[in-house]
Design brief:
It contains five helices and no strands. Helix 4 runs antiparallel to helix 5. About 70% of the residues lie in helices and about 0% in strands. By secondary structure, it is mainly alpha-helical.
Length: about 100
């Protein structure tokens, strides 16, 4: 069974660039809101169950391995946020350039 076709991206402004920017901001806002809620829940549960002292997260200094993992997560996050622009850039680039962009 094939999935139903995706609905066209909604258009809010006459300028397509403004619509792309709105899509990016909306995606970013959604990500931040969900992560903030989940983080607050986890920290609250840890403190409530005496598994973490209040303020330990803010005082934490990650090691090199943790920093490398963060860089990877940040790159994946940035790719998700700017996906709309990347799709457009890929559609404008010659086929060999587009495949090189998505391979990285």
């Amino acid at each position: 069974m094939t999935p139903p076709p995706k609905a066209p991206r909604p258009q809010f402004f006459e300028d397509a660039a403004s619509d792309r920017l709105t899509a990016i901001i909306t995606a970013l806002t959604t990500e931040v809101a969900v992560l903030s809620d989940r983080l607050a829940t986890v920290e609250g549960l840890l403190v409530q169950n005496n598994l973490l002292a209040q303020g330990m997260v803010d005082a934490h200094e990650p090691d090199a391995e943790a920093l490398a993992a963060r860089r990877q997560r940040h790159a994946a996050f940035t790719n998700r946020v700017f996906y709309v622009l990347q799709v457009e850039l890929d559609s404008l680039a010659p086929p060999e350039a587009a495949s090189a962009t998505t391979a990285s």
